[in-house]
Design a protein that fits this description.
3 domains, alpha/beta, 19 strands, six-stranded antiparallel sheet, Elongation Factor Tu (Ef-tu), domain 3, six-stranded parallel sheet, Rossmann fold, Ubiquitin-like (UB roll), 331 residues, globular
Length: 331
């Protein structure tokens, strides 16, 4: 048992806040008005991974996302509490300030089957309600029988409707609803926005990696850049999107303002496919010459993200310049 005692938590940038008895370090930071990197908040995605520089902590729930490649003293802020005064290698995300998580009613505005296994859903909010988010964030949809699932937002923040890409999941409870039972004007609830997967530095070369519907938040980020009147592109933007089969490329890069080097990739051999075949991270590394100076944003399958982080850092990328949103499948 952890004694009912408060300790001081300090970040490497000099921010101090108290530990809250029974609350994780991530939640204690939130109570203090600080925003640390995070996503799933249950130890599965690894987005809140940081390093313990000094002091002692206690694991309160399994840190599943920590792998054998992890550096000594790394931990997940969503899983651990302080048991002494501690110093951690975490930074406050000022860009997140003012973003408020809400539970709001919404109705299905449209349902469009883009491929055999991918549905585009648009949700509309009551006209009197506002929903502010950063491109790249996600929401929880609360469906029939209070089943809750997380989906990245495809639309950018200037859109009145919230667009999602839904991947069919075999035996998935909410997946079955979307593909078999959902109707226009169905009443649902959403909670969000959530996560910290968002654009940090617009003035560096940008490399985006996606698998499957992991393209969703990246579309949102790119659309945000396209519509940002103050953004003047001076560096390269590269996008590598992988799917198992060519039929799942349900989106095309068609921007007028920003210029993107877009590489679609399939992982299965296809006689009718004339593009790249292989793994997203391997092909990206073979094409990118200035990886040390880039910011990398990866979204999709955990295997791709884990492999990408390791290989890109080995190639010279600063670990602080790798941002990810790992899709954790629910049924």
């Amino acid at each position: 048992m952890v004694e009912s005692k408060q300790f001081k938590i300090r970040t490497i940038e000099g921010k101090d806040f108290p530990s809250i008895d029974g609350e994780t370090i991530l939640d204690s930071a939130s109570v203090a008005g600080l925003a640390f990197d995070h996503s799933c908040k249950n130890g599965l995605c690894g987005a809140c991974k940081t390093t313990l520089v000094k002091g002692k902590i206690l694991e309160m729930q399994p840190q599943i996302a920590l792998d054998k490649e992890s550096v000594t003293n790394q931990f997940l802020t969503c899983c651990c509490v302080a048991t002494s005064d501690i110093l951690i290698d975490a930074t406050n995300l000022s860009i997140m300030h003012g973003i408020e998580v809400k539970i709001l009613p919404t109705r299905i505005d449209s349902l469009d089957l883009l491929s055999e296994d991918i549905m585009q859903v648009k949700l509309r909010l009551p006209p009197t309600l506002s929903f502010d988010f950063l491109e790249g964030q996600f929401i929880d949809v609360i469906g029939p029988n209070s089943i809750r699932r997380s989906y990245s937002i495809v639309s950018n923040s200037s859109n009145k409707k919230i667009t999602l890409l839904i991947k069919r999941v075999k035996h998935g409870k909410l997946s079955d609803y979307w593909f078999s039972k959902a109707k226009l004007n169905d009443l649902l609830r959403i909670e969000g926005p959530k996560g910290t997967f968002c654009l940090r530095d617009k003035d560096k070369p940008l490399v985006f990696l996606a698998t499957g519907t992991g393209i969703a938040p990246i579309i949102s980020i790119l659309n945000g850049l396209e519509s940002d009147l103050s953004y003047n592109q001076t560096e390269s933007i590269s996008l590598f999107w992988g799917n198992r089969v060519r039929q799942d490329f349900i989106w095309k890069s068609n921007f007028k303002k920003i210029k993107i080097d877009f590489t679609p990739i399939v992982s299965r051999e296809d006689d009718n496919w004339k593009g790249k075949v292989g793994y997203v991270q391997n092909i990206a590394l073979s094409k990118i010459n200035n990886i040390k100076n880039s910011n990398v944003y990866a979204c999709g399958a955990s295997e791709m993200i884990n492999s990408s982080e390791i290989s890109f850092i080995k190639a010279g990328l600063n670990k602080r310049d790798f941002y990810s949103d790992k899709f954790v499948q629910s049924f």
